[in-house]
Amino acid sequence: MLLDPQIALVGLIVGTFVGLSGIGGGSLLIPLLVLVLRVKPSLAIGTDLLYSVPTKLLAFGLHARRRNVDWVVTRALLGGGIPGSLAGLATYAILRTHVNEVALQSTLRHAIGIAILLACAGATVSWIVRSRANARLIAASTAEATTPVPTVIAIGAIVGFLVSITSIGSGSITLPLLAFAVPVVTLRRLIGSEIAFAAFLVPIAAFGHASFGDVDYRLALGLLAGSLPGVWLGSRLSTALGDGWLRPIVVGALAFAGARLV
User: Fold this and answer.
1) Is residue 215 part of a domain?
2) 2 pLDDT exceeds 60?
3) Residue-averaged pLDDT of the chain
4) Range of the domain at 225
5) DSSP string spanning 193-258?
């Protein structure tokens, strides 16, 4: 099976920007699939979820080896996220059954646009949080006694539902919400925890969409073939160039794309 160079190029572009800016791949990829490649929103969502699984699992393994995962936070996220994801898939199944194809694609397009705008807001908040990270000196070992578990469960449920409907939010929305809800955990461990959460959550959502037939496997493989070297390239360029100038540009472009989709 030959890979489409155009699809691999899109993956390369997305991977490079992810490596450069740290902004979630779904927020970058979905607008390109829908607005540029004219992929149906439902197919774009399912394909993006499947494409994200290897990246999430690899990132989880790396953070777990470095002991960057706070399992109290992660378990609480999953306690809400798994039911939220299943509820999102159930909602999607109901929409597929009771809404005609044109209305379904339009609804998903609007939902993606709203999720991208939320992700842009989340990215902005994350920068503020990261800039203040050095001031957070409370040891992560105190997390078990002070983590507001019900609040984190609620965050997981919201993100789980959103990811199953739009594929967006496992990182771009989770992290800023955690930063406000769990200030006693260091930023490094919050990042590891949201990555661990996504590593369990995204495969569930991907499997659900695959069961609906909303995955283009050839498209996902082509995107992955381009994005993996793109992430490596972007990471190297980020070290050399820095990303302070790029992130506002990427967020501005995403906000424009989100508004177009809404």
Assistant:
1) yes
2) no
3) 81
4) 5-241
5) HHHHHHHHHHHHHHHHHHHTT---HHHHHHHHHHHHHHHHHHHHHHHHH-STTHHHHHHHHHHHHH
